[in-house]
C-alpha cells in the first residue's frame, strides 16, 4: 500500500467535500426559509435521525477491511467515505441553519460544535486510513 498516495487522495477528497458542502449552503438556506417555525422541531428530529444513521455508517466502515491495493476496492472505499462525509456535512449545515432560525443567540455555539464534530470525523477518517498501514 502506498500510504503517501492514499493520504494525498484523502486530502483532496476532504477538501472537495467541504467545497461542495459550502456550494450547497445557499440552496439549503433558501429551502429552509420556507419552513414555518412550528415545523422546525419535527424537522430537526428527522435531520438528527439522518445524521445519527450516516454517522453510524461512516464509523462502521473501515479502510482495514477494504482492498486499497486494488483500484476497485480503493474507489469503493473512497466513494463510500466521501458520500458519508458529504451527507454529514450537509446535515450539519442544515442543523446549523435551523438553529440560526430558531435560536439565533446559540448560532455561534452550535456552529463551533459542528466544526469540532466534523473536524473529528475528518481526523478519524485519516486515522483509519493510516492504521491500515500497520495491519
Q: How would you describe the overall organization of this protein?
A:
The chain has 135 residues and is mainly alpha-helical. The protein has one domain (38-134). Helices cover 80% and strands 0% of the residues. It has helices at 3-32, 40-60, 71-102, 107-131. α1 (3-32) runs parallel beside α3 (71-102) and α3 (71-102) packs antiparallel against α4. The protein starts with a helix and ends with a helix.
| Strand segment count | 0
Helical run tally: 4
Instruction: Specify the helix fraction band.
Output: over 70%
Query: Stretches where pLDDT falls below 50 for ≥5 residues?
Result: none
Radius of gyration: 17 Å
What kind of oligomer do you see?
single chain
Report the biggest beta sheet as strand number plus sense, adding barrel if it closes: none
**Averaging pLDDT over every residue, what do you get?**
91
Coarse structural class:
mainly alpha
Tally of structural domains: 1
Shape label: elongated
Amino acid at each position: 500500500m502506498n500510504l503517501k498516495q492514499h493520504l494525498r487522495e484523502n486530502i483532496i477528497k476532504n477538501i472537495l467535500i467541504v467545497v461542495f458542502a459550502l456550494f450547497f449552503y445557499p440552496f439549503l438556506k433558501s429551502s429552509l426559509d420556507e419552513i414555518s417555525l412550528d415545523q422546525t422541531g419535527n424537522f430537526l428530529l428527522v435531520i438528527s435521525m439522518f445524521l445519527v444513521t450516516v454517522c453510524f455508517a461512516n464509523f462502521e466502515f473501515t479502510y482495514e477491511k477494504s482492498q486499497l491495493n486494488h483500484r476497485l476496492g480503493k474507489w469503493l472505499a473512497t466513494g463510500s467515505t466521501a458520500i458519508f462525509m458529504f451527507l454529514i456535512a450537509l446535515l450539519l449545515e442544515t442543523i446549523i441553519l435551523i438553529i440560526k432560525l430558531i435560536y439565533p443567540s446559540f448560532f455561534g455555539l452550535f456552529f463551533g460544535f459542528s466544526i469540532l464534530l466534523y473536524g473529528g470525523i475528518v481526523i478519524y477518517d485519516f486515522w483509519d486510513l493510516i492504521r491500515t498501514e500497520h495491519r
